[in-house]
Structure formats: C-alpha cells, structure tokens
Target: KAP NTPase domain-containing protein
Amino acid sequence: MTRLKMSQKNVFEQIERFLSTENPEVLSVSGRWGVGKTHLWNETLKANRATAKLRNYAYVSLFGMRSLDALTTAIVQSTVSLEGPELEPTFDSYLEHLSSFPGVIALTKRAARKSTTVASKAASTLPYVGKLADLFAPGAALLISKQIICIDDIERAGQGLDMADVLGMVSSLCEHKGCKVVLLLNEDALGEQGTKYRSYIEKVVDQAVRFEPTPEESAVAAISAEDVLGQQLAKQTVALGIKNIRVIRRIRRFLQHLESELTDLHSGVTERVIKSIALLGWCVFEPTLAPDLALVCRYAKFRINLSNENCSANELNLDQLLKAYDFGDFDQIDQVLSDGLQAGAFDRQALQKLLEDESKKLASEEAREVISKPWKIFHDGLGNDQDKFIEAICTAFERYSNAMSPTDASDALQFLRELGRTEEAERFLPMYVDTQKDKPREFFALYTCNRGRLDPHIVTAFDAILAGMPVDRDPTEILRKIVFSQDWGPDELAYLATLPSECYDKMLKDWQGHDLNNAIYLALDFGRLDTSATNKIEFARQMAASLQRIAAESGLNRLRLRPYLTKIPPALMAEEQSSEEPDN
Model:
C-alpha cells in the first residue's frame, strides 16, 4: 500500500473524514518520533468529538505491552463516552462503561463498594479496578463494540506481542465489532516487525498516510502564540527545518532557563542566543537528522578550506546550511551553550559574563553606526537630503551623546550652526557635556592636544570638569613604572597627559640621580621621536614646561637643568621665558 506523505493540515482533514462516519475502518498514521502524531490525533478528536458518529472512544499505548489479553483489557479499561467531560479514563468512567452492559452491573457494584475511597484516576492504575479487570479479561473482547479505538506506539510493543497478532485483532475489531481503529506508529522504527507490518497492511488497513508536518506546522504545535520569546525561537526552528515537536519544546525549556540572564541586555544578545540554541539544541537532541555537533564546532576552521578537494560532503552540506542560516563562527558563547545542552544545565556564571560582554559590544557597535550615519549621508552623494542629514545628527545626540567623541560632537554642532539650526546646537551642547562628566581622566586626553579642532564651548566645559577632577592615582608611580620597564599603555600616558602642572613639578622634585635623568630624557624623547602621538606630545610638553618653571626658581636649579633645557625641542618650548637671573 502506498503511504501518502501529508502535512498536518491534510492529515487533520483525513482524521476528520475518518470520524465523520460510523463505517468500520482502519486508518494508519505513520511518522517519525516527535513529529506530533498523538498530539494531532488528540486535537482533531477534541475538535470533532461532538460530531463523531461513534460515541465511545479508547486510547491505548502498546509501549511495553506483552499480550493480546493485555491489549484487550486496556481497551475496555480506557473506553470513555464522548458525551462525558474528559477523554482520559477515570474510575467513574470505567464503572459507567461497564454498567452499560446489563450482565456485569451487579459485579461492578460489588467491586465499586470495595474501592469507594479510591480517588478518580486513570482506570488502569487503580488496584480494585485492576482486580475487576482481571475478572473480565477472558471475555473482555465481548465488551468492545462499535467504538473508536486509537492504538499508539505500535513500534514499542513489548516482547511477546507479535505484529501479526496485533493486526489480526485490529482486523477483527473492524470487521466483527464494527469499530473504527486508528494506528499511530513510526514505521521506520519497527525493526524486524516491519516486514510483517508491511505484508499485512494491505489486508488490514483501509488508508495509510505518512505524516510529515512542515516546520511551520511543528513550530505552531510546539510553541504557544502568546509566548513572545518562543515565537522568536520558532522563526529559527523553521529556518533550520526542524519538524520534531518534542525537540522544539525541549529547546524552548532550555531557553527558558536563560530568560533571567537575557533581561536588561541588548536585544541583539537575545537574538544571537536564540539563533545559537536552536541550532545547537537540534544537534544535541536530534543527532540523527541534525548536523554533526562536532562539525559545527569546527566550522570556523574547516570553512577556510572549503575549496579544497579534501572537504567531505558533510562539510559542504553544513556550509550551505549555516550560510543560509546566517550562523557565524562558533565562539565561547556557543561553547557554553553547547556544553549546557549536553550536560542538562548551563554554567550560568560563565555565560552571564560572556553575555554581558556581548551586550556591551553590540551596544557600542550600534552607537557607532548611529553616530556615523550623518557622515555617511554627507559623503555618499549630492542628493536633496539636508533634512535627513540633520535628523541623523539629532538622533545621534539624543540617543548616544555619551558615546560621541569630542571631535564628532564638535563637527556635528558646527554643521548645525552653519545650516541655520543654531537652536538645536544650543540644545545639544549642554546635553553632550553633561553625558561626559563621569568619564575618567584618561578620556580628556583625547581632546587635550586637539583643542583647535574642538568646539570652544566644549573645550571650556571640559577644562572646568578636568580642573575639578581629583588626582586619584600616584603620577610618580606611573612614571616610575614607564621609566624602569620602558613599557606603557595608552591609559597611562593619557592619565599623565591630563595632569595639572603642579603634579609635574612635584614628580621632578621627588626624583634624584639617575632616576631623575632617565625620567627627563624619556619625556623629551617622546616629544622628539613621535610627534603623531598626541598623548606623548602633551606629556613631553608638560614635562618641558615644568623643567623651565623649576629652572626659573633659582640660579642653582638653572645650572642643574641647563643640559636638559638645551635639548628641549623648539616645539615644546614655552612661548615666554624669563631672561633674567633669579635674585637668589
């Protein structure tokens, strides 16, 4: 028999047709594990329970079942009326079903009196109901008639329950008992029983369909429409083509564990985590269909050599998938996510640090993009886009003043004024200055040697901020470290470049001998050898000015410092030097 491949919508329609008549019939629905066969059957039955022609229904699973007697008894135990409130069997529904057969009413009442304290549960789990079922087991088949029966998990039947016997019983229920039977199974997992199933299916099954939902249908079945984060995940599972509902739900549960970590971070972090966890979760939870996880981890390495003839077909296929999925290099975040998915729990501390760093990076990139947008408009052409240019400047100030450099801010203010938007310029100036107040001293080194390029109002405001800023690091120790190690970082030079003049005077007076000599020559070399490094130039200029001030304090100091004063580059010399000898 040809198995028609059908989407969820088509299988839903076939089940509706199946339920709409009272004609005895066997419908087989096969599909891979996790695609939602049972879910679809239950949802379709619920939607059509009022109109189904047969009014009694039983659901049984063959998982671990070892005999036809057990199957027959399970059908009797599980039978419920579609007129009732629930489709799950209970103690009451079991007694109600048995009481519909006059010959067993008395026996039912006697058993019921023994179990009055037992809560209503699934009938097959209740001790007295189980004993009652034992009484009926030899003739249980007589209690099955003209009803709907769903037999699930056929491929998981226990040892002793042969496929030929199951199908023989199904045929008997249909032909002699007037029942409608639906079989739910994964035909690919039948193993040795598969041959028997395929040989008998033509004689037993009236219609066989292969359930292959679309990724969109599986996502809808797995994730609630009200689940905002889940809907973002659904977009990624659809993009990957995941059809296994259980896998999608499992990935969603792991994503739920991370929701607190994602709170208050850049929205791009959430998008990035969802994209990664969808792919990696698929690899971990459905390895037979998903890409090889080890290959995904090595993607950044092997994709460089994809043109090499030695690349495998799996590597080429993975490259196509990940390019279409827009997945970048496998990084530290992916590694922690992968480890957590495999271990069953995430290293939350390690992941939180990585996510916070990623959030800062994305925020910085976003700010840079917004700040640079006006200049892209300016340089891209000669269109009639002045309003667009001004709007971009305003947006940059309003959203990212704190991330703008003094040069960016000065240029933007100048353009606003030249374009007749003085009012906006005056509004944004204090806004910009206010966002810079908490910056460290090193930040102000960015403008110290470029005052001519900056808006004078910004220079004045920054000078005031810098004047009121305490010197919270020992400049002598910073300079000592630079002198002795001949190594320095940009932050250290930036800090020294912004110090007031009295700090330089104190540093020179605190040093003696060779240390003093080395410190002075280092500073002067900065001013002579690397004129493009603004912090070095400012540091050298401040040191030269301090030498001149100290030399002017006494004749002896002038003589002491004369060897150094003659080596000061002209560009570093103070504009005015006293030609008079000091009185003392």
Q: What stands out?
A: Residues 114-133, 575-584 have pLDDT under 50 and may be disordered. DSSP finds 29 helices and seven strands in the chain.
